[in-house]
Specification:
about 20% helix, WD repeat, about 500 residues, Coronin, 6-stranded mixed beta sheet, actin-binding, alpha+beta, cytoskeleton, globular, 4-stranded antiparallel beta sheet
């Protein structure tokens, strides 16, 4: 570059023809650097996932969130209700709120309050949106049936009480594909798998864990379990054979609690702490856990990382207890295998977190995840979306997802049969099927309570109700569903026509 010549003048003189060879070299260098940048920056449609908290009037306010010292999420969500474990005097209780019941929750609002000690964990049944299980410090597991329109009075009578643990029950988890199969894990270091339909303990895994069980996760088809224990071991268990298939000692060397979950491809994702108390995440092959596929250090915070996994998009969301952020990672077959995407941050720390199943999301807004963040006195929904310009259904964001229908009955699974989840499409918006009441058949009942007069009257009324009216209701429901589907389609077409008219007007100008 000549003396007294600015850089812009120099570039101009290069490209107007004074130094053609230099111009050619600069162009090639620019193309090469752009190609290298494309290789370094991994392409992903989830790189720009946008998280946003809802407005204050859409939150659930004045809720006394539980203060019990237990590292569970304290919140469970499904397409109908949000359930939150709360502080309760004289026992354990939790709220069950219809999703649309936002705003301030009255102190006299009815609760589910059958436990005699604090509730530690709750889980909605994936096959019936009205059934929820709870585990408590009173050493019992209870299964509840919530009325279709939510609670009008406090519910203290469960459908069934499951008794078998000798210490507090800290984990409850429904089988992903078999109807009425429920797992519970207690501080007595044992895992019990129940047939809720009969109220019986079918499988007891009592000699596999020498210390407290931190987490239990079902595999995609429910044939295997993955557990994280205080002895720093991660175990893969075949529950029906009562056999440990694989295990890893010191998966994370730190003494603080670990978490382990199954991924859709059978691999295992864990969170824990290093020897220097730094938070870590790791990926493992379930059939060979000698060495991790990858390990990543995160930060030096001391909050336990709760992982939430979406098998459809292969994204893991990490919510630390006491953190004010949600980090999310995409898991792929390419190194480094666990790819950091982004972090959603707010000012307030979280006491717990609920995660909405895919069929409860708004597909029209390109919503790929929804969290229910618990503060000290409220619950705040957080919506994760992928920005898209088109109003049409985004097939790449919504592959077929697990529906509410079970693949197996409880007896089939206990007898050794396996079945993957029955998938449904979200293209036309999900329309919930009629939920069947949970029927419990007690096998050894010594005495039965006589039916009250009111119950007899209601039974008679059920029998004399005219059959044609039920058929008419079903027919009306079917017509309304079809009408809603057609209306949504017309709205989409109107938007598309308006957009095309705008484009034509621009071209004409």
């Amino acid at each position: 570059m000549t003396e007294g010549c600015s850089f812009s003048d120099f570039i101009t003189s290069v490209y107007v023809g004074k130094w053609p060879l230099l111009a050619l070299s600069l162009t090639a260098l620019l193309f090469l650097s752009a190609d290298m940048l494309r290789r370094v920056v991994r392409q992903s449609k989830f790189r720009h996932v946008f998280g946003q908290a809802v407005r204050n009037d859409q939150c659930y306010d004045d809720i006394r969130v539980s203060r019990v010292t237990w590292d569970s999420s304290f919140c469970a969500v499904n397409p109908k209700f949000v359930a939150i474990i709360i502080e309760a005097s004289g026992g354990g209780a939790f709220f069950v709120l219809p999703l649309q019941k936002t705003g301030r929750i009255d102190k006299a609002y009815p609760t589910v309050c059958g436990h005699t000690a604090p509730v530690l964990d709750i889980d909605w049944c994936p096959h019936n949106d009205l059934i929820i299980a709870s585990g408590s410090e009173d050493c019992t597991v209870m299964v509840w049936q919530i009325p279709e329109n939510g609670l009008e009075t406090s519910l203290s009578e469960p459908v069934v009480v499951l008794e078998g643990h000798s210490k507090r029950v800290g984990i409850v988890s429904w089988h992903p594909t078999a109807r009425n199969v429920l797992l519970s894990a207690g501080c007595d270091n044992q895992i019990i798998i129940w047939n809720v339909g009969t109220g019986e303990a079918m499988i007891n895994l009592e000699d596999m864990h020498p210390d407290v069980i931190f987490s239990v996760s079902w595999s995609r088809n429910g044939s295997l379990l993955c557990t994280a224990c205080k002895d720093k071991k991660v175990r893969v268990i075949d529950p029906r054979k009562k056999k440990i298939v694989a295990e890893k000692d010191k998966a994370h060397e730190g003494a603080r609690p670990m978490r382990a979950i199954f991924l859709a491809d059978g691999n295992i994702f864990t969170t824990g702490f290093s020897r220097m108390s730094e938070r870590q995440l790791a990926l493992w092959k379930s059939d060979n856990m000698d060495e991790p596929i990858c390990v990543q250090e995160m930060d030096s915070s001391n909050g336990v990382l709760l992982p939430f996994y979406d098998p459809d998009t292969n994204i893991v969301y990490l919510c630390g207890k006491g953190d004010s952020s949600i980090r999310y990672f995409e898991i792929t077959d390419e190194a480094p295998f666990v790819h950091y995407l982004n972090t959603f941050s707010t000012k307030e720390p979280q006491r717990g977190m609920g995660y909405m199943p895919k069929r409860g999301l708004d597909v029209n807004k390109c919503e790929i995840a929804r969290f229910y963040k618990l503060h000290e006195r409220k619950c705040e929904p957080i919506i994760m979306t992928v920005p898209r310009k088109s109003d049409l259904f985004q097939d790449d964001l919504y592959p077929d997802t697990a529906g509410p229908d079970p693949a197996l009955e409880a007896d089939e699974w206990f007898n050794g049969k396996n079945g993957g989840p029955i998938l449904i499409s979200l293209k036309d918006g999900y329309v919930s099927t009629k939920n069947r009441d949970l029927k419990v058949v007690k096998t050894n009942v010594l005495e039965t309570k006589p039916a009250t007069k009111a119950e007899n009257i209601s039974t008679v009324q059920k029998h004399v109700s005219p059959q044609p009216s039920v058929k008419m209701e079903d027919k009306l429901e079917e017509v309304l569903r079809e009408f809603k589907s057609l209306r949504d389609r017309v709205i989409l077409q109107d938007r598309r026509i308006a957009r095309l008219e705008e484009q034509v007007a621009k071209v004409a100008m």
